[in-house]
Design a protein that fits this description.
Low-confidence stretches: 7-12
Number of domains: 2
CATH architecture of the largest domain: Sandwich
Order of helices and strands: EEEEEEEEEEEEEEEE
Strand order of the largest sheet: 1-6-5-2
Helix content: under 10%
Largest sheet: 4 strands, antiparallel
Mean pLDDT: 84
Oligomer: single chain
Radius of gyration: 19 Å
CATH class of the largest domain: Mainly Beta
Distance between the termini: 45 Å
Number of helices: 0
Shape: elongated
CATH topology of the largest domain: Immunoglobulin-like
Length: about 160
């Protein structure tokens, strides 16, 4: 098994407002990376280019599959601070960064979550808030030897 590196691209397409827009992904070398059902799989060590087309916008992303994982230097939540109402839920999103500054999505099943304070529960990477208004706490994510903290306040 290999590890996929998507260059240093951190491009985000906001697809929520797009209707009837064709989205396609073309792969220069399917022997390096395969793509099926909106999921990528590293096949063999090597280089390829993915061409992503959203409507009339085209993006070419170089992809490298390496034989060992690039170590992460840090992990972060998508937010440093979260203010949320009692009874609401929030999907926890952790991103890892390697020595080159590239971002890597980390599977929520590989992250250990801890809660400091009486702010709620976490199940399957989702924080469900259960507490009184004004209560503060934090969610801690641990992945291998890296740790991230997000402060939480119940409004």
């Amino acid at each position: 098994m290999g590890y996929i590196t998507f260059g240093s691209y951190n491009n985000i397409f906001n697809l929520t407002n797009l209707k009837d827009v064709e989205i396609s992904i073309a792969n220069q070398d399917p022997n390096v990376v395969s793509f099926k059902n909106w999921s990528f799989e590293a096949r063999n060590v090597g280089l390829t280019t993915l061409t992503i087309k959203v409507g009339s916008t085209v993006l070419n992303i170089p992809v490298e599959v390496v034989d060992k994982e690039v170590p992460l230097t840090k992990i972060k939540f998508d937010k440093d601070n979260l203010t949320i109402s009692n009874g609401k839920s929030y999907r926890l999103n952790i991103v890892g960064y390697d020595i080159y500054g590239n971002s890597h999505i980390i599977d929520n099943n590989k992250i250990k979550y801890l809660i400091n304070g009486k702010i709620g529960i976490i199940k399957n990477g989702v924080l469900t808030v259960k507490g009184k208004r004004g209560i503060k706490g934090e969610v801690v994510a641990v992945y291998k030897d890296k740790k991230a903290v997000m402060k939480v306040q119940i409004k």
